[in-house]
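Q: Entry one of two.
A:
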Amino acid sequence: MKSNRILAICILLISVGFLNAQTTIYDANRWMGSDLNGTARFVGMGGAMGSLGGDITTMGTNPAGIGIYRSNDVMVSFGFDNTGAKANGTSIDKFHGSFDNAGFVFSTKIGNSTALRFANFGFNYRRMKSFNKSMLMNGVFNTSQTVQMADMVNLDEYGDFRPWEEGALSSSDAFQNPDLPWLGIMGYNASLIDPEYGEPGEDGKVPFKGYLPYFASGDAVSQSYRSKESGGIHSFDLNGALNFYDRFYIGATLGLYSVDYDRTSVYNEDFTDKDGNGHGGYTLGNDFWVNGSGVDFKLGFILRPFESSSFRIGAAIHTPTYFSLTERNTAYIDYDLNEDTKGITRPFDSRGRDTEGEYDYKLITPWKFNVNMGYTIGSSVALGVEYEYSDRTAAKMKDPDGYELGQTEDIKAMMKAVHTLRAGAEFKLAPEFSFRLGYNYISSPMKSDAFKFLPVNSMRTDTEFSNPGATNNYTLGFGYRGSSFYVDMAYMLNTYKETFYAFDSLDLPGTKVTNSNHKVLLTLGLRF
């Protein structure tokens, strides 16, 4: 799982100057990319409308698509989805309603004989990404999260033992010590890790040479994890597009973003020795929130190279999105350990010390490049295909003062370029009725051996992480177009697999999780 462990240690040496840097590459990955969402027509065609245009959602892919409009448009979209995750034979399904899309386009005709035929302006709100997800899993292994707790306290950034004065972890101001990890402090106060004493110094003090985890070699560790995530990324697009000669279209979009994310998780371990005797256990609870905003700019064009043909080609470039984010976390440990374990008396059913932290940072996403083609056959068939490229290894994370964080090196080491393919078709069954099919593929953004690294002085206590695979979206849709009123409906099956780890350990096997999302989307609109 950790073939790049040595590389991570090198990254850590680079990161040593950024004390208490909390965020991880898994947080950065969460804010990059987008779901297939927008109008029902856009979704029904797999999002492959960059060159076909004439749909409000294209503001976020190829801004020139708004230049195709010859009339005003106002619309609203909402949907219903069922998200599910299946692991170890256990599955969780949740039903959600959502407000997905609302926008308008004002189209102004300039003239029939002038070079500039139309000047169009528009606004679109889109729920760009949804974080709604629940997970539940369990297993029995021979390793424990207490090993990670002990290592965070025991080892410095160079992998050497860290000497501590007795009482350092139990002092009232331990959580204010910039050299101490909060997870280690909680583990110590919950009696999950035990001190190993070194030789007395010349001053007579006995330093802690290291820490041994509570769990013993040979113990079976029963583990369970459950979590609930909610929130999303909301985009607000302001667009302007021009139509020249009805053959060349150019457009630009200013994108504004709002981020809200909430995760509640509970992780439990129960210890049993080789003779089947229970040693008790503990529960670690974490709450994690993120709020923030972002901005970017998109520029695109569409060209109909042959006057006698409806074939179109297009391209768009998206600048990096500049996010400013604030994350907060709280945590607790409930523990119940046998009093005779390791000869140390433990209180029963006690509660470890709660923690709370807050951290601000900036994320600069990579550039994004989009090329697309579209073709119509009379007024009966429309075909579109798109390819998009974004190298996530180029993303950067900075502190509020603009200094680059060590996590930027983690991103280079553990993330990958993302390739997105979109294809779609629309068929007119009658002048007013249409049928649509689409497919959307997004490659994995993470290397399979990536892992979550918490610094030795981290305020974060959530150790879980997942390495996602490729995402596949399968769509179909129907549409009705009247003289002014229109209604579209789409169905989407979204599916991807991921490998889940409750904590970072060479001995912890990953849990295979299959995620699926069934979504029905409805758009109501008026053209005039």
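Q: Entry two of two.
A:
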Amino acid sequence: MKAQNLTILQSNKFNIPEFRILNSIDELGNIDDYIEYNKRYAIRSSCSVEDNESESHAGEFETFLNITKSDVKEKVQKVFESYNGKTGRVIIQEMIDADLSGVLFTANPIGILNEIVIVTGKGLGENIVEDKVDTTTYYYNTDDKKYYFSGKDDLLSDSLLGTLVEKAISIKELFNNNMDIEFAIKSNDIFILQARPITTLKKNSKIITLDNSNIVESYPGISLPLTQDFAKEIYYKVFRSLVRRLTQDEGLVRTLNNDLKHMVECCNGRMYYNISNWYSILKLLPFDNKIISIWQEMLGVQNKEVSNTFTVDKKTKKKVLTQAFKLLRNCQDKMSHLNSEFERKLPIYEDLIEKCESISTLLSTYKIIMNSLTEVWDITLVNDMYTFLFTALSGKKAKEQLKNIKNIDSMKPVIALNNLVRIYSKQGCSVLYKIQEEEYIKKYGDRCVGELKLETKTYRTNPELLYNYIINAEYIANLNNSDNNGIRDNIFTVRAKSGIKNREISRLNRTKIFGLARNIMLRVGELLEYDGYIDNFRDVFYLYFNELIEPKDYKDLIKIRKEQYKGFENIPNFSRLEFLDVITDKNFDTIQSKKMGRHTEFFGIGSSLGKLIGEVIKIDNPTTDVDTKYKIIVTESTDPGWVFMIKNCSGVIAERGSMLSHTAIITRELGKPSVVNVKGIMDNIQTGDIVELDAYTGIIKILKDI
């Protein structure tokens, strides 16, 4: 196979060192015609059973490097003899006196399909294989086009890295397979020495596609184990209720149960949609191909490939069609009922939690509340689809019309907070201020940056954070100054606005649900600390729910988990990961990110119209004390808690997002220009850069960098 592959590569103009192929020992007599005394050669095996899909004999057959003319015949004979009667050929290839050598995998052999891996070291390849030199390993995500590397030295320039990636992609396309490629670099020229299939990647394996479109708003950065458990349970039960409501078929619910249990996953401490499973659910719907396209657009899914083979019979499709239209027709009434019921039940839930005195009763109450909510919460998913559909039907003018939504809930915490700032600026910590502060915490104390992560410190759990914010904040008059510029809403826009309004209500209520769960788990943590099982009550977030059922000494386990999650922080946050069969976490003590060149112009989706030039503040790890006044925020994504920072800024640029992401909705309401889904912006910009933000065209230009 190696011999055949080298011939194919050479015929396709890849830079291959001179080589000859011997089909049998009988051809040894002719090699003096092309073997030179002043050159050295690699004598490589190419056996019929080597590197095929059913079996791999890598390393079993002889290979010799750095061989002089006088020894070539002997080494060729040894290679043929190593086949032990199997059919094979021998490659005689000119050695390259390499500055760098290495191995290039078009997919990570551990089973990450969209990650190219490059292992390189100084000198000849044999030194790398035999661990005689230090190596550096580069990891390149083909969706995000981002690198990071581990190793002592950064050995490859941007240009060489880029060229190696281009060759990897070209060779993969040429063979229609993921390949293990050996290369050598001499004076910046790249030579391909051999290419063979990666035998650890089995073609019949299940592909698991993780995508953080939209979910990154709710779970930015690292999420700890207890948050992961809670999120997975919520998604599972809510989607199971939706499938049951749509299909009225318990058999189909059971068929989809495994997909439903894995609607979200965690990798490297970060939350992702298991997007293949989402497509299974979306394929139940009428006009599923069109629905999937709209869903991808509204959630900002950049890779539009639908990696799913789930099929639905015509009878089920017909039943779902009837149910879907019925649900969409009654969706807004059902959302109003859900909202009012939640407001009625919230104090009941809070009272239940207050009465708990033991870990077991707290965990039982947690289950009761979650089961009660998830049985009815699926209507919010119907409302999401309702909103997506009518936003898409609103057409190109949606950016202008989908703002100034009267009494939208995502603005209420901002207005209330702004009022607190006004009272404090005039009266200080007066009785009126204290009353209003207490009321604010009661209503909106769970709304903050990272509000859906249970480990987040909120204004409810840590009221001092609110006070610290208030004393440093500035009151803004005419907070909501957006308007529709006299444009009359069409019927689609009216319905889209209704859906958006209910969506924001449910998102605020969802924040309160997570606040209930956070309260329960903090109290569990306090009891565990009191009993000596953990050192600090907040360490409870490093545990999974099932580990809490029978309390024990968790100190050693938590110590290990803290080290593990510290390692996760070193790994870049990739938007998409593709695995074979199993999701694999990584952990590095030290890695470094590597950026490919410097770009100054970017394109995205103009989500709130306007145009301005201003200074950037780049936000990786948001906190409410970040001063964004008169600055253009550049970030990966925002969540509802960002509203307190957005209200002071001039505009927003987000690497992720869509027309219905939180960035888009809030900037429209606040009249701040914004562009979302700007791929690569975070790797190319720094705080202090001057940019032009044009939300009419979606173009971002860096005019001056620091």
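A: Comment on entry two: The mean pLDDT is 89. The radius of gyration is 30 Å.
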